[in-house]
Amino acid sequence: MSPATRYPHVFQPIRVGNVTIKNRIEYAPIVSNHAETLSGIVTNDLLEFVGAQARSGAGLVTIGSSPIDFDRARDFYGCLSVTRDSDVAGLSLLADEVHRYGAKLSIELTHAGAISDPGLLSGPALAPSVIPGIHDPSTTKEIDRTEMDQVKQHWVDCVRRLKLAGFDMAMIHGGHMNLFASFLTPLLNRRKDEYGGSPENRMRFPLEILGACRQEAGDDFGLEIRLSGDERVEGGVSLEERIQFLNAAAPYIDLVNISTGGFLDPQALAYTHPPYYLPHLLNVETAARIKQGISIPVSVTGGITSIEEAEQVLAAGKADMVAMAKALIADQDLVTKVKLGRVKEVRPCLRCLECMHGPMGGPLRCAVNPQAGRELKYREIPLARRKKRVLVIGGGPAGMTAARTARERGHEVVLWERSDRLGGRLYEASALPHKDGFRAYTSWAIRKTNECGAEIVLDKEATPEAIADEAPEVLIVAVGAELVVPAITGIDSPHVITVVEADLGREPVGDRVVVCGGGISGSECALGLAMEGRKVKLVDILPEETLCREVAIFARTALLKLLEDHGVERIQGTLDMITESRAVVTDPDGSSTELPADTVVVAVGLRPDLSSIEPLLDVVPESYLVGDARGVGNIGAANHDAFNVAVEV
After folding, report:
1. Which of 188, 385, 444, 454 could cross-link with 182 by S-S, CB 3.0 to 4.6 Å?
2. DSSP 8-class letter at 437
3. What is the model's pLDDT at position 117?
4. 621-635 as b/e, with b when 16 or more CB fall inside 10 Å?
5. What is residue 176's DSSP assignment?
6. Can you list the alpha helix ranges (DSSP code H) found in 8-144?
7. What is the pLDDT of residues 204-258, one digit of tens each?
8. How far is 327 from 307, CA to CA, in rounded Å?
9. Distance CA 42, CA 89 (A)
10. Largest separation between any pair of C-alpha atoms in the chain
11. With contact defined as beta carbons under 8 Å apart, do 113 and 182 qualify?
């Protein structure tokens, strides 16, 4: 079956205003932080990243949040500038790069308003109203009429520059409770003038902006608006009012992008960039209801990770386009591969949000695709100058990535795995019901490793003698790390199990559970057990605010909320003793608490066994240690560590 037959709606062109787009996939806006950090000018890194976005096969590429004013509107370091006439030359390079792949180019134009970090602004943040308990009056001011005119002109000037640069469209960011969105929501607009109060008044300034942008855009330049279909906070804009606004805006815009959530509440914030804890197709039903009430084409984003899901949404008539980003980062040829019938080759996205977890202004990185965000250096994996015999020890994520990368460079590769299957700790990492992306990635990684041309040897224990007999020129040790078992009285009791045994269901678990270790593995284990109906207490010596910081803030927020929703009680303290029916915890103040426990789960982390690793590294002069064996981390750390070594040997 041809892709056009299997996915007829995805690969059908669409006319948005007077812009014809080759298919129904929009590369949703994401800030890659590749522009020059302070000035926002186009860099070669950004040019290559945007080129990769177009090579993905998406019909419409939308560059992420770009402020209309660097002094008062910015919310990111490393974002692109459209604020100066001198930016046009660099912007035109982006348009040329995207157009040569047959895609159309747009950009998300933003005024962050009061949600910006004050450190990024040269003056107070602007808001429709300054509301006690929400805004800091020392860093926020109510926007006045003169400033409103300036803001509107900034948007118009940006549209003018984009037209000069050869862009096809612009997206007006009116979601997530930025300045535009704040005028629309009664939660943030308490004005007493003609721009506050009734829905008609709250719509007035946003409609003035859209009207001015349309006048500048003319008929041939497309305008899209992004809105939160559901602000996910009590008292936010109703669906009926959203539809009323969009019908009023219809003369000015060509496409509506439906997102969700906002920055007023941590939980609502998590929904703006949904991690794997939240459902797939998050905003589809809201988009469908909006589509029924308006005449403008609708695009929807949020938890859509495959062309199959996109086809499902489009075929049901719930949207006219589907906006994806993270899946297109995990596999930068996703749409192209599907169009060529190579669906099984698509690398799955974990929805882990590693692409949003770097330092502020740091360039984008992906947990499963070490080339993403590094296109300038690694658009193609370079062939080795000299073919070498490479031995990889360990078949977990790091070992598999090392083997595949070394093979792609042309090396002769042998991989030893001491167990009877590849995958390592990916199996336990994918055990939680929500982690379907992890399970799909595990299957993909194993299949691609088996197909890469490396010699795979299972049930093979690595010893210095065996390595010497193999005589490799390069040795890559990726043996992972072992579970830490703390020295606690009663740790050997039959009702004490490891987090691996709990996650994989290898041992029975009682109704009352104490999980020792509140990091990501312990927290996810506790959540999984609570979802099965068990009463779970989660113990860690560290306070809650310091735990699970190794994941993106959006993911951490969603996880903590789910733990709360499923009744997991978090307890700060040290597990000191385990009896037949209780776990004894010492609180930070030194007092002891006895927790009833039918099962105790130990989840205090991993530690590499250096005593067994170091002798292996002494056999071959060119030896490398990668993954958890070098430093315990997550899947992304393992993949990047292995890639960085294998791409250079």
Report:
1. 188
2. H
3. 84
4. eebbbbbbbbebbbb
5. B
6. 44-55, 88-99
7. 999 999 999 999 999 999 999 999 999 999 889 999 999 999 999 999 999 999 9
8. 10
9. 9
10. 84
11. yes
> Which pLDDT score, from 0 to 100, does residue 237 have?
94
* Contact present, 281 and 252 (Cβ < 8 Å): no
**Residue 342: predicted pLDDT:** 95
How is residue 194 written in tokens?
A: 């003609």
Alpha-carbon gap, residue 225 to 242, rounded angstroms: 12
**What is the length of the chain?**
649
Q: What is the CA radius of gyration of the chain?
A: 26
Contact 478, 392 (CB under 8 A): yes
Residue whose C-alpha is closest to residue 32's, from 326, 409, 285: 326
Distances (CA, A) of 533 to 433, 508, 568: 14, 14, 11
pLDDT for residue 111 is more than 70:
yes
Number of H helices, E strands in the chain: 22, 27
Query: How many CB atoms within 10 Å of residue 560?
Result: 22
Residue 388 · residue 649 · CB < 8 Å: yes
**Which residues pair with residue 71 across a beta bridge?**
none
Burial 170-203, CB ≥16 within 10 A → b, else e: bbbbbbbbbbbbbbbbbbbbebeeebbeebebbb
pLDDT at 1: 63
Q: Is the pLDDT of residue 450 over 90?
A: yes
Number of Cβ within 10 Å of residue 71's Cβ equals 12
Residue 134 CA to residue 506 CA, distance in Å, equals: 48
Side chain identity at 244, as an amino acid letter?
Answer: Q
Dist CA 19 CA 27 (whole Å): 16
Within 8 A by CB and 6+ apart from 194, the residues are: 201, 204
Cβ–Cβ < 8 Å for 474, 388: yes
DSSP 97-133: HHHTTT-EEEEEEE--GGGS-GGG-SSPEEESS--TT
Type of residue numbered 560? L
In terms of pLDDT, which residue wins out, 458 or 589? 458
CA atoms within 13 A on the CB side of 133: 3
C-alpha–C-alpha distance, residues 641 and 342, integer Å? 28
588: amino acid identity, one letter: P
Place of tokens 């930025």: 178
Q: Is 260 helix (H, G, I), strand (E, B) or coil?
A: coil
Residue 157 parent element (H or E): helix 145-165
Q: Determine the Cα–Cα distance for residues 172 and 158; give it in Å rounded to an integer.
A: 11
Residue in 115, 229, 249 with CA at minimum distance from that of residue 175: 229
What does the DSSP 8-state code read for residue 308? H
Look at residue 599 and give its three-state secondary structure. Answer: strand
Question: Cβ(252)–Cβ(282) under 8 Å?
Answer: no
Residue 296 tokens read as 């403008």
What span, in angstroms and rounded, lies between the C-alpha atoms of 47 and 34?
9
- Which residue matches tokens 């312990």? 522
pLDDT grade, residue 358 (50/70/90)? confident
Nearest CA among 200, 203, 177 for reference residue 188: 177
For residues 164 and 156, give the distance between their C-alpha atoms in angstroms, rounded to a whole number.
13
pLDDT band at 544 (very low <50, low <70, confident <90, very high): confident
